[in-house]
Amino acid sequence: MASIDARAPVPPTPQDRTVRPRPFVMRNGRFLFAWALLIALLTAYITVVPQFRPREQRTIANSGLTLAAASMGQTLVVLTGGIDLSLGPMVSLTNSIAATVTRKESPRESMIVAAVAALGVGALGGLINGALVAYGRLQPIIVTLATGSIWTGIALYIRPSPGGFIPLEFSNLLSGTAFAEPVTLPFGLTWNLPIPKAAFVIAGLVVFWLLFRRTPLATRIYAVGSSEGAAYLSGVNVQRAKLAAYTLAGLAAGFAGLVNSAQTSTGNALSGTIFTLNSIAAVVLGGAALAGGAGSYLGTLAGAYVIAVIPSVLQFYGVSSFYKDLVQGSILLFAVGLGALGLLRVRNRLDRL
Amino acid sequence: MSQVQDSPSHIGTAGETAHKRRGRGSIAADSWLARNRAFLIPYLLIAILLAAAAIRAPGFVSASNLTQQLVLASYLGIIAGGQTIVILTGGIDLSVAWNLNLSAILLTQLSEIMPVHWAAVLALGSASLVGLINGLGIAYLRIPSLVMTLGMNAVLAGVTLVYTNGSPQGDAPQFSRDLAVGRLGGTLPWALIFWAIFSIGLVFLLRRTVYGKRLYAIGNNVKAAYLSGVPVRRVLVATYTVCGLCAGLGGLMLTGYSQQSYLGMGEFYVLPAIAAVVIGGTSILGGSGGYTGTIAGAITVVLLQNVLQIVGIKPAGQQILYGLIILLMLFVYGRNARVRE
Question: pTM of this prediction?
Fold first, then answer.
């Protein structure tokens, strides 16, 4: 038609295949912000700390390990559009179980039993959450609030006062330093760079995520979070996907409980409390949408370490630890405030609600 | 476009969701009992708890002790009042913990250096201001309420620690002690009189004012409310501000009760307040429920905590029963609709 002016093209309709996606930086704003912040914090830490020896490396790597493990679970649940407030109590519960099941006479064997028990209880707790949310059709936030209270109660039964026993070998296994002594490799090479063992755990979590992301289950979890109705109409078993997400979250919490046990070398029925809200903060910082369907563990990992590293950085800059919460909260609000930039491009006022 | 899916609570028409939420049976056939289930069940629970207490410890159901329990419930009830209106819009406020803590500390510290009434005004003003900022972030920047208030809670905890340098100073002024534990004529607690006035005010606000109607409209279906001309953002900002004010009032009363302010005094009131709202029959999705249920919910939670102790159940068992009762309540009140489209 002649009336169409070439300089003012018709805005593409949403169905138009040629519609240009938003720039990568815009789409992944919070994800990139989390990593940039983490790198900035680590740089700040390394420049001010007198020496960045294996001991400091280990401290930094260990500081966020429990949160990184717990946040894996929170990410999976948030991807379905849910939330898990029972993660922290589950960390406490599995920590209490692990520290109580172990025996000084047979540290190694009993620790294996403890690890299996912790992971099993974690998965079972997650399964219960999942069943209540998926088949009970109850609100995740209040269901997990209630089950969290139950987990805390059970943890208090098992461990009324802090204590118990965690074998030193186990603490060393998850939070020690690998290659402390130079290792002789074939071809006359030697490896003399010590690496914190926590780095291997993190690598394991990342590899698990990258593999998991390729499974049909992961696709279903994203689909359910994006649109439950559309997922159902596409033949996704919505309930089973949710059940799986919550069960895996419980398993992750159980693993976080083991990491916590290794790091604290003791059992405490309230040790995991902080991980509930911190894991949500890590997930949000990492760029996942609380409404579900968008996000990645790779972002959450950065978010978890940002939260965990802040106290160390503040300490070395001589800032009172009283500022820790203030800084963490401000960063969280700033990161979510970045999302408000997206409102600038919303044309329909109805979409701004 | 994706917004519709972002908020499952707002899918479908208001009537349809409300209908499905109630479960089986048609609306017209609902009896008075069914319609007031949310209101009646907590009172039934209170009766059961009192009966259990009477069997194990007859002294528990004496008039003086029951009055004392009601006074304890009034602190929780006022904090839960703010949480009720926020939950009615489909949101949640987790910043109540440190918001009430900060206002309590402001009251004790400022009343050392200025007239008490100015200290009280500043304490309540700061609590309302926090609510206002929450509301602005949630309504205008569209930050999910859970995240906004979670971040705000951490910021407030930090501000409080920095402000007090780790140890809050000062004592609770006399008026706050009177409000929390004083008695009119030596018999009727001021806390109960204040709670009664507060309740009448809040119930009136929810049932008889335009603001109340708009609140329910937003909770039921925010898009429909917007299209019907409800100033959604302004109502949300007002709601979070009132919630902040309620937290401040709770902080004032708790300071008076413990005669001083201390760090972490609010932590034990956030989840119980949410539990009181849910036990009182307000849907966590928003749009249905009210403060009369929350009053019963607050009494139930306080009785639950104390009766379980009287009956000889350890804190561990109390935690477990607490969780089980909330789960039971959720099943009684009805479940979400199946998503099939």
Answer: 0.85
Give every residue of chain A whose pLDDT is below 70, as ranges. 1-22, 26, 339, 341-353
Query: Which residues in chain B have Cβ-Cβ distances shorter than 8 Å to A328?
Result: 154, 158
Chain A residue with minimum CA distance to B339: A229
DSSP state of A315: H
Q: Which residues on adjacent β-strands are paired with residue A191?
A: A183
Length of chain A counted residue by residue: 353
Which structural domains are found in chain A, ordered by start? 33-38+53-178+193-338 (1.10.3470)
Contact A353 B284 (CB under 8 A): no
Distance CA A142, CA B83 (A): 14
| B137/A238 CB distance under 8 A | no
The single-letter DSSP state of residue A23 is: P
A84 CA to chain B: closest CA distance, Å?
Answer: 12
Helices within A104-176 (DSSP H only): 107-134, 140-158, 168-175
Q: Would you state the structure tokens that stand for residue B129, as one six-digit string?
A: 């201001």
Mean of the per-residue pLDDT values of chain B = 85
The domain limits of chain B are 77-290
* Lowest mean pLDDT segment, chosen from A70-74, B62-66, B290-294, B330-334: B330-334
Give the pairing type, strands A195-196 and B188-189.
unpaired
Q: A232 vs B330: CB contact, 8 Å cut-off?
A: no
In this structure, are strands A190-191 and A195-196 parallel, antiparallel, or unpaired? Answer: unpaired
Distant-in-sequence, close-in-space partners of B18: CB < 8 Å, separation ≥ 6: B220, B287, B288
Who's near A203: CB < 8 A, 6+ residues apart? none
Query: B72, B69, B29, B75: which is closest to B50 by C-alpha?
Result: B69
Q: Which chain B residue shows the shortest CA-CA distance from A159?
A: B316
DSSP string, A175-193: HSEE--S-EEPGGG-EE--
Of A14, A227, A325, the CB nearest to B154: A325
Distance between CA atoms of residues A312 and A305, nearest Å: 11
Contacts of A77 in chain B (CB under 8 A): none
Which residues in chain A have their CB less than 8 angstroms from residue B8's CB?
A: 81, 228
| Nearest CB neighbour to A353, from listed B151, B232, B331 | B232
Q: Identify whether the C-beta of residue B87 lies closer than 8 Å to the C-beta of residue B277.
A: yes
Main-chain dihedrals φ then ψ at residue B158, nearest 5 degrees: -65, -45
* A136 vs B contacts (CB less than 8 Å): 330-331, 335
> What is the residue-wise DSSP string for A35-104?
HHHHHHHHHHHHHHSS---HHHHHHHHHHTHHHHHHHHHHHHHHHTT---TTHHHHHHHHHHHHHHH--S
Contact B251, B272 (CB under 8 A): no
3-state secondary structure of B26: coil
Tell which phi-psi region holds residue B127, choosing left (phi > 0), alpha (psi between -120 and 50) or beta: alpha
CA dist list (Å): A249 to A86, A126, A242, B292, B323: 10, 6, 11, 37, 20
Burial class (CB in 10 A: 0-12, 13-18, 19+), B193: middle
Structure tokens at B116: 């008490």
Interface predicted TM-score (ipTM)? 0.82
Helix, strand, coil percentages (3-state) for chain B, rounded to 5, are 75, 0, 25
CB contact under 8 A, B157 and A281: no
pLDDT at A15: 54
How far, in Å, CA of B210 to CA of B212, rounded?
Answer: 5
Nearest CA in chain B to A340: B141
Q: Which residues of B touch A22 (CB under 8 A)?
A: none
Identity of the residue numbered B325: I
Question: Do residues A251 and A238 lie in contact, with contact meaning Cβ atoms separated by under 8 Å?
Answer: no
What's the pLDDT tens digit per position in A117-130?
999 999 999 999 99
